[in-house]
Amino acid sequence: MARTQLQRARDGEVTAAMERVAERENRDPEFVRQQVADGQAVIPTNHAHDALDPMIIGREFATKVNANIGNSEETSDLQGELEKLHAAVHYGADTVMDLSTGANLDEIREANVEHSPVPVGTVPIYEAIKHVDEPADLTRDLLLDVIEKQAEQGVDYMTIHAGVLLEHLPLTDGRKTGIVSRGGSILARWIEENGRQNPLYTGFEEICEIFAEHDVTFSLGDGLRPGSLADAGDEAQFAELDTLGELTRTARDHGVQVMVEGPGHVPMDRVADNVERQQEVCDGAPFYVLGPLVTDVAPGYDHITSAIGAAEAGRAGAAMLCYVTPKEHLGLPDREDVRDGLAAYRIAAHAADVATGLPGARDWDDALSEARYAFDWRRQFDLALDPQRAQEYHDQTLPGDNYKQARFCSMCGVEFCSMRIDQDARDADGEMSALDDETDLDDSPAAEANLPPVGTHDTSGVPEEIEINGVTFTPDQGHADD
């Protein structure tokens, strides 16, 4: 039987995936191996995910960003989901989670794995619940069957809400927003109606055996996470976290890679404390956080409220940030929402890496600043996190090619451009020193995630065209080709 990345790392082997990660992170392969062996980092790599370009999640590496995609009962089909997948990869997602809850779950999941160069995650209880009439009808065997099937399909990591225990449920009484995790609420209902312990907890070692066979990484779900600032840091949240620490050690004992999911709504001044507590309780397992949202008052702008918390979490040591789109709390995101959510979170992740002094992380900022001062508009666009958006905004008022050499933009105009005034003053009498403009990104020690352009995954294993119901299309075209 093929062994997991964790088992091979413990045996001193530097795998091909570790070599690729070292290349992308600009780190020594032996350092990568040691981080995986110690459980401080994970490389989600299901043996059956042929299109995967390996990546790593750990606090010693570039902060990663996950994009949630998936359909619902109300909207989205396979073509729409593949276009969202393409958008997520194009705009820099390091992983994607297929959170589909509507129709054709197997078809969508298998297509995502086949066409994704980044790790694919799922929440298997979303599929399991569709096989029964009521949450109380779920069985441990059904849950294990769904988990095993998804592992065989090539899913790289799964959210398993095994930390929601019977004894934790009374601790949620008195909350403002109760249990906001879908998986957590389903399991709480099962526990209440059956009067027994969480079947994902009692069956955890069996899940470990399935994960070890396929090298699926645990993403231990935070089913009792706070859904509002008022509920942040309560007994229920931290009781579950203690259980996740126990489960982390059990998973590692089975040779299975594990990361831990974190809270959704946390006041900004308590974000770092949450990260530090998780690192202590879970023995340094990578922390994967949703946001966190630092205020509850901005529906429609929660990609911003959460990116603020995400930057704080990344600075404190969170290893991966789960993006939030403008549609959070309001509706299912579309392709443009994926783009906006990823932009906000790539900014948060990069800002965190700059703040923590990750080698070379600021070189990208310096190069763009030099292009901006030099009025090199085309290089500014090329270096921008979203080049198309940057040029689109510039060209709304100054669209002509002649303006690509102009020493001003429409905000200040010619007369009031501070950089032009400064340049002219430096050129006039020579008393002001010349500025440093020699950042060479080709020589930067930065990880790939902190260099332009975003979305540079190796897609050589991904089919270029997709056929759905006899119609062939290319995802980046955004429409079917007859």
TrEMBL record:
EC class name: lyase
GO molecular function terms listed in the Swiss-Prot or TrEMBL record: 4 iron, 4 sulfur cluster binding; phosphomethylpyrimidine synthase activity; zinc ion binding
E.C. no: 4.1.99.17
Listed InterPro entries: ThiC, ThiC/Bza_core_dom, ThiC/BzaA/B
Cofactor entry: [4Fe-4S] cluster
Span list, region Disordered: 428-482
Residues that hold substrate according to the record: 68, 97, 126, 161, 181-183, 222-225, 261, 288
Biased composition (Acidic residues): 434-445
The protein's annotated pathway: Cofactor biosynthesis; thiamine diphosphate biosynthesis
Keyword annotations of the record: 4Fe-4S, Iron, Iron-sulfur, Lyase, Metal-binding, S-adenosyl-L-methionine, Thiamine biosynthesis, Zinc
Function comment: Catalyzes the synthesis of the hydroxymethylpyrimidine phosphate (HMP-P) moiety of thiamine from aminoimidazole ribotide (AIR) in a radical S-adenosyl-L-methionine (SAM)-dependent reaction.
Protein family (similarity comment): Belongs to the ThiC family.
HAMAP family reported in the protein's UniProt record: ThiC
Protein's name in the database: Phosphomethylpyrimidine synthase
Record organism: Halobellus rubicundus
Lineage: Archaea, Methanobacteriati, Methanobacteriota, Stenosarchaea group, Halobacteria
